Amino acid sequence: MLLTTIYVAGSLASLLTLPSLWLFFRRWYREAKEQRAPRGVSESCLEFLYGRTAINLVRLSNLQFLPRAGDMVWLPSEPGEKGAGYYEVVEMSHSSTADEKGNEIPCPARPVKIVAIVKKRSG
């Protein structure tokens, strides 16, 4: 009688544990797969383009404000190189992707990359 009770309790515990364990590993696999996905250097950044050259990258999380067309911005250069100076923002381009986590609003999106095309004003 005691062994039958233990057997039934163990079977019930297994039936309740296995589906939750499968869900846990499924979620863990998705998160690991997202982290392994290749990302570009300029992903989640504001990229300043001068001609066809990217002259500066600013992480969107560090962004104080988003420049608009016509704004003047000071962009530093790499240490030891020329190129620092004031640039005028000529055009802005925004790229977004669907945001699965923010489902409180209809059609949620998150910015992936913002490109500012600039022209040099002074150095």
Protein described:
The protein is of the alpha+beta class and 123 residues long. It has one helix at residues 2-36; strands at 45-50, 53-59, 72-75, 85-98, 109-122. It folds into two domains: 1-37; 45-122, no CATH class. 28% of the residues lie in helices and 37% in strands. β1 (45-50) and β2 (53-59) form a beta hairpin. It is elongated, with a radius of gyration of 26 Å. It starts with a helix and ends with a strand. The model has no long low-confidence stretch (mean pLDDT 83).
Q: What characteristics describe this protein?
A:
single chain; 123 residues; alpha+beta; 2 domains; 5-stranded mixed β-sheet; 1 helix; 28% helix; elongated
How is the secondary structure organized here?
Layout: H1 2-36, E1 45-50, E2 53-59, E3 72-75, E4 85-98, E5 109-122
Parallel strand pairs: 1-5
Antiparallel strand pairs: 1-2, 3-4, 4-5
